[in-house]
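Appendix B. Chain record.
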Amino acid sequence: MASVCHFRRFCRLPMKRFYSTIEKKTVLYDFHVSHGGRMVPFAGWMMPVQYNNSGIKESHLHCRSKASLFDVSHMLQANLSGPQVTKLLKALFVADVDALTQHHSVYTLLTNDNGGIIDDAILTCTGQDSYYLVSNASRADTVTTRLKQVHEEQQADANIDILMEYSLLALQGPAMASVLSQGVSHNLDGLSFMTSIMMEVFGIPQCRVTRCGYTGEDGVEIQVPSSRAVELADKLLQFDDVQLAGLGARDSLRMEAGLCLYGQEISEDTTPVEAGLAWCITKQRRKQSFPGHQKIIDQLKNGATKRKIGLKYEKGPPSRGGSEILDKDGNTIGVVTSGCPSPTLDCNIAMGYVPTSHAKLNNELQVSVRKKQFSASVCKLPFIPLNYHYKK
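Structure tokens predicted for this chain:
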């Protein structure tokens, strides 16, 4: 029990920065409460951080071994379409939109003129001149404003439809496919990582199922009409392998997978190169203009002054966002952006930024926690192997 309490105490999300005067509720709010969800404000919404029947650590390990159901309906969903929609998208995102074919998705970044990251998102081609966008709840207003601003500047013949009548459920974990296959007629073996298709799910028509997620496990995100979201959640929970999971486990899972969280690892002051996300800008796209192009290309050619790193250390309490990173001589050189005890690795892990000169793998550094210094080493990200489903 002590180790569980220790994990709960230190694996906390930086929720204060997302507080708003009136918190919104997803259609699953009462469903979460009835299942023992501990509701907290996050990104302007009331969301479950964990459930009474399991702690964050237990929920985390369940996702790694079986399957967990997350409510991610707070995220921004939009359809973008029209004859000049690619013109609009290329003026917003770093993605190679021209190379994106129907039913395929791509992780991409919305950048500003200084090369900073306004938000990260998943963009899916749903048909000719038609795309589906999912981005962060904490950046919904900023992204929506940016979409409309660039649409007006480009005078593009395109439509922006913010989807208000749809919920989003994420089923993540190695048991996902065996569970979901019992409620769909589509062969899930053919639905590989970062592909998407409309299908009927447990009797609910017109659900968009995208094989993606933010846990490092095989999983899907299911767009479902909000009027039937509770019905779908109930049906999925009928399977013994499926448990509800909240923000706490979602955060520790994505940290083990080395995935960025907006407001932590990425922000408008962080470039894709600094954040280790330059891989999402293809060679073809690097030849074309996009917001912040000049600065980003310069960093690709000449290097950035700081880099995101992963850190492991065993002794001491886990670090949290804001903890100092020091060199071997005790000089402060950087800051932790996220940290937690890793249930999978049974050690402390963290991500943060340091000068590029200190970012070499296996470099010995220190992390300051509660005014004490603990030895840590720079390690490769992700911290664990990723278990995404690819076509054989």
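Further analysis of this model is presented in Appendix C.
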